[in-house]
Design brief:
Shape: globular
Bound molecules: guanosine-5'-monophosphate, manganese (II) ion, sodium ion
Order of helices and strands: HEEEHHEHHEHHEHEHHEHEH
Structural class: alpha/beta
Low-confidence stretches: none
Number of strands: 9
Largest sheet: 8 strands, mixed, barrel
Strand order of the largest sheet: 1-2-4-5-6-7-8-9
Distance between the termini: 50 Å
Oligomer: single chain
Strand content: 15-25%
Number of helices: 12
């Protein structure tokens, strides 16, 4: 209860902030985007992880205003990353199931894009399989609206939920993000290696791009490159970092 009271005030007291983790294109080694990851600087308890407060935010409905703040902040920051002589840089935002079900979602997305000036295709929205499979009819309507806006849609934590292949085809999203639990045992774990290869083959067959998450070693990166994985994200490529290091990473790219 106490944490809930604090979370209600966290937004107005400016206690939330975003870190950004780079996503790298395997073929060119260039940064193609950053995933926004929220943190809470609690006045007494210090930094609180989203694994602790996002579930609370979902239960209390606070995820809707918090999610809107994340979206607006990420879009504004990403607008500042663009440079006429460099390749465009996407920003990826995690959407929770409650946000996806919010009837105002498309309006909020449009407004965040409009107010920031960020082109729609540079905003990536990460949805989980659970969010998508929950109510297939409503999901299709919302997905259609988001696709109409032109945002880049991806499925996060892929492989940990229950998406039927039939729905996967119909969702028509741009990318799958292979969950880090499949990547962590590579290259030694031959079963997870087989799963990783199969996900990449399936995604490419459906004309989707693949992002491997939780890449922590060069051996993992080499294997993923060999498998034809399109993009990688993880501590080996870069930790979640504050906005000023994002600017440094971008300007130090060849
Ligand atoms: O950054 P970290 O590994 O601590 O994130 C833990 C979990 O919190 C991940 O599942 C991540 O998707 C989730 N998360 C991080 N930021 C956000 C956010 O802005 N919104 C939502 N809904 N989830 C987030
Ligand atoms: O659920 P989602 O994929 O959005 O969560 C991403 C989470 O993974 C964040 O909490 C982020 O801090 C964490 N993360 C990012 N890179 C790595 C990594 O290389 N290894 C591990 N173990 N966690 C990572
Ligand atoms: Mn994510
Ligand atoms: Na994930």
């Amino acid at each position: 209860v106490k944490l809930e009271v604090g979370l209600r005030k966290a937004l107005q007291n400016d206690e939330l902030y975003l870190l950004y983790q780079p996503q790298i294109d395997v073929a060119s080694s260039q940064i193609v985007g950053f995933e926004a990851l929220v943190r809470w600087r609690h006045p007494e308890r210090g930094i609180i992880s989203p694994t602790e407060f996002i579930p609370l935010a979902e239960e209390t409905g606070l995820i809707v205003p918090i999610g809107e703040w994340v979206l607006r902040t990420a879009c504004k920051q990403a607008t500042g990353w663009q440079h006429p002589r460099r390749r465009p840089v996407r920003v990826a935002v995690n959407l929770s199931a409650k946000q996806f079900k919010d009837e105002n979602l498309t309006q909020i997305v449009l407004s965040a894009l409009h107010d920031s000036g960020l082109p729609a295709e540079l905003l990536e929205l990460e949805l989980t399989e659970g969010t998508l499979m929950d109510d297939a009819r409503a999901t299709m309507v919302t997905l259609e609206q988001l696709r109409g806006i032109g945002v880049y849609l991806s499925i996060d934590d892929f492989g940990t939920g229950y998406s039927s292949m039939n729905y996967l085809k119909r969702f028509d999203v741009r990318a799958l993000k292979i969950d880090k639990s499949f990547i962590s045992g590579l290259p030694a774990d031959s079963e997870n290696a087989a799963i990783t290869r199969a996900i990449i083959a399936m995604a490419h067959g459906l004309k989707m791009a693949v992002v491997a998450e939780g890449v922590e070693t060069d051996a993992q990166l080499q294997l993923l490159e060999q498998y034809g994985c399109d993009m990688v994200q993880g501590y080996h490529l870069g930790h979640p970092s504050p906005p000023d290091s994002v600017q440094r990473m971008l300007s130090s790219q060849p």
